[in-house]
Input
Amino acid sequence: MIRIMLLLSLLALYINSGAQAPVTDYAPKYAKVVNAGDMKKLVKALASRKFEGRESGTEGQQKAANYIRKFYKRNGIEPGNGDTYFQEFEVKERNGTTGGMSENVLGYIEGTDKQGEVLVISAHYDHLGKDGKDIYYGADDDASGTAAIMLIAKAFAQAAKDGYRPRRSILILNASGEEKGLLGSEYYVKNPTYPLKNTVANLNVDMIGRLDSTHAKDTNYVYLIGSDKLSYDLHFISEKSNSMHTNLNLDYTFNSDSDPNRFYYRSDHYNFAKNNIPVIFYFSGVHEDYHQPTDTYDKILYDKAAKIAQLVFYTAWNIANRDERPLLDKMIDKE
Ligand SMILES: [Zn+2]
Output
């Protein structure tokens, strides 16, 4: 009897210590969901002829939206707009050109004790469509980022299923209308499905599959843009996530305020930044196939893209599970 009691108490101690291990210890297990092989499958599908270059408001883009929605449903990721995955908006460009209706695709992983706070992870899935017989496949821009956030969503959903649900909630925003002027993310921040004041950060992934000319021989880099602009705290979480897990060469060239490319203003994260939500933009630069029909899936470096996607995952995991949301230490005037 005593022996059994001892065994039972040892067992209880063991279970207890397991439950008390910091949730960060489990991140590497789920980071494996974000892998090169699965990224390739997703990029190949998204950048296939079937989706005709995914121009906002076209049938090809709507097929891609359905493909993403089905992936979320199949992998246990909840809808992020009430009981639906789609958030519909009118495609209306700055110059007044209208192009029918399009939709953002929203996936959601509910948090635990801090579920009212939301981290947004985004990538745009629309691209330039086709021109006569030429299809703009947009494998790097931005099937690479889309595949990354789909797998990150899957990783969080799998962790949640195993009992390691994040403390904060996570919204996966597959934006449309980016190529026509950041329309989908603009619509989202004007019609957020979770209050912006409780939105703790935005991690945005746009073009992570190729090398640019400055890094022609370096397959282990990523440009980070924006990380320290509103919250040094966020920058610190990002740096730490990298040094602990991915060890990528973080290149801050384009983070400079005087950078003539102005990338900070050129993808969906900027709609969050201008609402004083701290952002990080993950990007590996432009190349000869940028906005050309030759941006195809066979040219993507999947090991590199998956490693960057894993950095996004680790950073997201750390933001979602820490005690405090990233502290805002700078503010920008709202337009
Ligand atoms: Zn893009």
Observations:
- Residues 43 and 143 are 5 Å apart (CA to CA).
